[in-house]
Amino acid sequence: MKNFAFFLISIVFLVIMAVKCTFCGEGVSGSRGLLNHYKKCQKKAERTHRSVSHALETHHAELAAVATRALEEIASQAVNDPPLPDLPRSPSPLPLRPSGRPGRRIRLPARYRDEPPEPPQPLPPPPPTIVTEPNPDPEPNSCAPPSPPTWIKTEPNTFGVYKVFPHRPTHDPEDSICLEDLCRSPGLLTPDSVVSADSSSSTAPWFPFLNATVGRLMSWFHLGGNLRTHQKLDELVNKVIWSEDWDRENLRGFSAARENKRLDNAVDAMPGQAPDGWKTGSVKLKLPAPKVAVPEAQAVEFEITGIMYRPLLDVMVEAFQSPAFQQYHITPFELRWDPQHDPDNPDASMDEHDHPVDEFGLPPLPLGHQPLYGEIYTTPSMLKEHKSLPKTAPLHLETIIAAYMFWSDSTHLANFGDASLWPLYTFFGNQSKYTRAKPTSNACHHQAYLPSLPDTLIDFYRNTFGVPPSAEVLTHLKRELMHRVWDLLLSPEFIHAYVNGIAVKCYDQVKRLIFPRFFTYGADYPEKVLLATIKNLGGCPCPRCFVKKDQILDMGSKADMRRRGNLREDSSSWRQMIERVRGWIYAQGRLVGSAAVDRLLGPQSWVPTRNAFSVLAEHGFNLFSMFVPDLLHEVELGVVKAFFTHIVRILYTLGIEAVDELNSRFRQIPTFGRGTIRRFHRNVSDMKKMAARDFEDILQCLIPALEGLLPEPHNSLVLTVCFTLATWHAYAKLRLHTGISLNCFRKTTTELGVEMRRFRRTTCEAYETYELPSEYNRRIRRQAKKNSKTNSSSTAPAQGSKKRKYFNLSTYKWHSIGHYPDAIPRVGTTDSVSTQNSELAHRRVKQLYSRTNKRDVEPQIANHERRNRILISMNNRMNDAAAADNITAPDSVQNSGAGDRIRPENEPLPRTPPRQHHHISESKRAFYNIYEFLDETDGDPAVKNFLPQLKSHLLARLLDLPYDGDETEFSDQDLLDVNIVQHRIYAHQVMRINYTTYDMGRDEDTINPRTKSDIMVLSREDQDDSSTAHPYWYARVLGIFHAEIRHVGERSKSLRIQRMEFLWVRWFGRDLSYKAGWQARRLHRVGFVDFEDGGAFGFLDPSEVIRAAHVIPAFHYGRTSDLLPPSIARRPEQDDTDFRFYYINCFVDRDMFMRYCDHAVGHRATYSSTSSPGNVENSDTSEEGVDSEEEDEADAPAGGVSVDESDLELDADEGEGEDEELGSSDSGGENEEDSEDEESHDEDNGGDDEGYEGENDENITNSYGYDAL
C-alpha cells in the first residue's frame, strides 16, 4: 500500500508540474522550465515579432493620420485668425530626481569627442618656376624688386600647431608619419616600423655571411639577449626557422666559431658604408711632484694604453648614411601654436611675407600664438647655429648640422665584484626624442670607453719620486686623464670638419656639407666637474654659473636669478690663468693644492687642468653651455630623496608608530598604469634598493600618505611643500612646453624656494633629528671598510651613537633647480637630455659583458658592439629584401588565425587600433540573466532600481540625447520599449581607453574592475560658479558589460538589434567644504555618494570616459560603513567598508597633470572645461636676497598637474649606476651632507604590469559578488 500511495502521489505531482507551451505545445516541467523554454521557443519569437510589427504599423498609421489632421487645422487657423502677440514664457520647474530631491540645473557642454592626434601638416608645394625673357634694354633708373623672404610655414593641424622654417627644407621626415607613429603605448595596434635598405647596392642582404639561413641564426643569437625565455624561443621558431629563406641544408657543417670569425673579419668599410671599426689609442699624463721643478714639456710621463674609441667623424658619417637618416631633421624650425585655431573654420589666408624677420630669418610670433619647446631641432640654439653656417658651399652643397649629444656614466657590470665600465655614448639631436629614447631604435652609438687611473700608477709614482701620490695629485690626474682622452677624440680631422664641414653622401643619395656641432653633455655631478674643470663641491660648485656656495640657499629669489646671469665662459683670460698656474706646479714644483694655487683659482673653483674643449673656443663654442640639467640625479635622487629622508627623520622623533603608519599607508596606495605607479611592497622608510623612479612615485603619492602624521602647523606646511615640489617636478618632466607653461614653471620655481626655506626654518628647527637606522648602518660599514684598508686600530662607533642630522639646502642639487626653466628653451625639454637615456643604454653594455671572459673586457665589449651593429644593418637589408619579394615575415602577425576565431576567449584582449576610443571584448562567454541576477542580489542597495536606471541610460543613448548624468526621466512605457534580448547582459574583465595626450600623442589606459577601476569624465555641472566649478566627474567602475538591445515603440528609430556597451559605476562626489586646487595647494578631495542618494550608482557610456584616474584613499580620516551596507559593489578585500574620503592624484603622470591646465596643446576636447594655474591670482612671492617676511605670505603656486607616463615609456623606468672613483672629491670645500656615499642600485626597469593578469573574459566566475562583475 505504501508503494502504491507513493506511486499515486508521484503521478499527481507530475501532472501538476507538467506544463505545455501555449505557442508550440511542447510539454515542460514547472514554471522555471517554461521560462527557459520561452527563451528558445522559435514559435513564440515569430508570433511576438509579428504582433510587434503589426502593432507598430497600426500605431504609425494612426500617428500619421493625426499629424495630417493637425497640420490641416493649423493651416486653416493661420489663414482666419489674427496673429497673437509674443508672450513671455514662464520658467519650467526643476524636475524631481528619483530620490525625491529637486534636480540640479545642468549646463551641458559639448559632447566629449575623442580626437586622435593629427600628424603635422606637410609643407605647401613650391610655387611654379616662371622663366622670363631678360630685358635687353633696361631703364637706367629702374630698381630691382626686393627679393622675397625665404621663410616658409605649414598649415596648422587640428590642434593649431604649425612649423615655420627659415627656408624650404629638402628633407622633412614628418611628411610621411601617420597616426601609428604617434602612439606612445605598446598596447596599441601599430605596424612594425619598416626600414628601407638601399636597393641599388649589389651586396647580398645577408653579407658578411654566405646565406640567409646562417645570417638569421647568427642574428638571433647575438641580438636576442642573454635570457632564454619563451618569447625568445618563439622568435627562434617564427623569425628564423619559419622564415621563407630558411634552408636547413645550409647548416651542414655549421660552426659558430667560424661564423663569428667571418663576422669579425668583415672589412671595416662595409660595401657602400662608412668605416665603423673601433680604434685603440693611448694618452700620456704629465706627473707633478712636490719640489720637482721642471718645465711641463720635460715632466715625467705616465702612459695609459688600450683606450677603446671610435673617431667622432666615423660615427657621424655612419649615422647620416644609415636608414636612420630618414628620421633626421636637417633643417631646424620653430614650432608654434595658435590656441584659438578652429579646425572647422581655418584661416583662409597665410601670413603676409612683408613682415620683418628676426635674427633667425623667421617672421614675428603673431599675437596670441605661443612658441612650443620640445625637440632640440626646434630651439633657438639650433636655429642660431644653422643661421651661422656658410651660405654658399663648394659645389653648391646644402649645409646642414649634425647635432651631437653626449652622455657618459660609469656603471657596474655585475651584481658581485668590482667590474665596471665607463662608456661614452653619442646620440644625434636631429632625430626625434620619441624615437631616440627607445633602446630598440638603436640610436645610441658607443663612442668610447673611458679609462680609469690604473693601480700601477701609484707604484710608478712611488718608484719615480720616492713618495706616494697625494689625494690632490690623484684627483688632478683623474681630470687630466678625462681631457687627454677628449684630446684624442677632438682630432685635427674633426676640427677641420667643425670649421669647414665635411661632404657626405647621405642615405637619400644627396651629397651635403655637414658641420658637426656640440649641443649637450649629460652626466651626473662628479663627471660634470671633471668635464668643466672645476673643483668638486667647491666655493662655486655650479658648472654653469658663479653662484657661491653660501648663496645657494636663496634659490628662486630675485637676487639668485640675477646671480645666475653671471655665467662661466671659455675666455682667453681664463685659459691664460690656467697656463700660469700649471707653470707654478711643474716649473716651480709647487703643490697642486698649495695656498698660492688656491688663492688664484679657489674663488671661482677653477682647477689647474687644461680643458680639451677649449680647442673649439676660437670657433665660437662655449664648453660650459653644453652642460644640461640632470633630473634623475639632481632632483629625484637629489632634492626629492633628501626631502623625503628628512621627513622620515622627523617621524622617527615622534615615535616608531608614525613611521609604521607611513609604511602602512604606502602599501595601500593603488597601482596605476603600465608601471607608472608600482606597488610599494617594502617599507618606504627604509629606502632599500630604490632607484630614481621609486622616489618619483613616492613624491607623487606623498600627500595622502603623510597627511595628519605631524601636528599643526607643521602638517599644513609640509603638505604645502609636497604639493609645490610635486608641481615643480611635473612641470620639469613635461615633454612639450608652451610659452605659458614655461612662465608657470618659472613662477613655481620661485614658490618652491620660498616654501622649502620656510620648511627649513620652521619645521626642521622644531625637531632634533638624527641618523636613520639605514644611514647609521652605512656609516658603520664605511668606517669599518676604511679601517680595514688603513690597518687602523680604531674601532667602529659604539652602538647608539647616532649623529645629529640637519636639512641641508646649500647643495649643488638644490641650486640646479633654478637652471631648469631657462634650459628648456635653450636645449629642449628635460626628457630629451635626461641621463635616463644613458641608464637605459647600460643594459646593452651589461648584456655584452656577459659574453666576455671577464678579463680585459673593454676590447671584447667593443668587438661585440661592432658585431651587433653589423647584424642590425644586415637585418634591415634582409627585411627590406623580404618585403620586396612579398615574403610575409611572421614577426608581429596578430593572433587572428582560425584557432583564434574558434577560441577568442582563451586569449587576452588583443591590441587596440589607435583610432578607436575604447575597446571591449566581443566575447559572450560570461553572461547573466538580468532577472536572475536581481533576484539573487535582492536587498543589495547597489542594485536598487538597477533595471530602470539601465533602461533609462540605454534609452537616452538610443534617442541621441546629450549625457546629463542620466537625470532625464522617461515614462514606464518608454522603458518597456527598451528590450534586452534574452534578458542577458554580458560581462567583461577589462576595457582599454585610448586618449590623446597633451603633446599630441596617442596613449591608452586599461580599466579593470578588480584592480584599476577609477575613471574620469567631463563634468556636466554648471561652470558659471567659479567657487565650486570643477572640470571632471569621477567614478569607480563596478562592471564592464554589453547587451543586445531592440528598441520598439513610437520613439524607436530602428527595430534592428544593437550591441550597446555600458559601465556600471559608483559615483564619487566632490567635498565642497574642502579647499583644494592651485590656490589652496591641495589635491581635490572626493568621497563616495551615500547609497540613499538616488545618484550613488549609475551607468555610463564608455565613449564618455576620458581616461583612468588615480584615486588615493585619504588615510587620515579612516574608514566607514555608513555610506553603503554590505554589498557586491565593494571588492572582497575592503571588508565591507569604504574610506571616508579619497584624493584625486593629479600628479600621477604628465598627461594627468595637464588635464587640469588650459595650456595643454593636445587636450582640445577639454579646453573649455579646464583652467590654467598660471591664470590664478596669486600674491607676490618676490624676495630680495635672503628670506624676508614678505616671502612667508606668498600665495598660490603657478602649478599645473602631471607626471611620467609609461615609455615605452622611459619616464617611469629609471635606474642608476655609478663608479666609486667618481665619488672622490677635492680637498677643501666639501659638503658633509653631499659627500656621504649613497647606495645606488642599477636595477632592471621592466614594468611588472600589475593588474594586467586578468584580461581574459573566461576568468570571470559564474557567481554573484564582486568577482562576477
UniProtKB/TrEMBL annotation:
Q: Which Pfam families match?
A: Plavaka
Q: Where is the composition biased (Polar residues)?
A: 1166-1178, 1259-1269
Residues covered by region (Disordered): 78-152, 783-802, 885-921, 1165-1269
**Signal peptide (UniProt feature, chain positions):** 1-21
User: Where is the sequence biased in composition, kind Pro residues?
Assistant: 82-96, 118-149
Q: Key word Disulfide bond present in the record?
A: no
Q: Acidic residues: which segments have biased composition? A: 1180-1195, 1204-1258
Q: Has keyword Signal?
A: yes
Q: Which UniProt keywords apply?
A: Signal
Full protein name: GLOBIN domain-containing protein
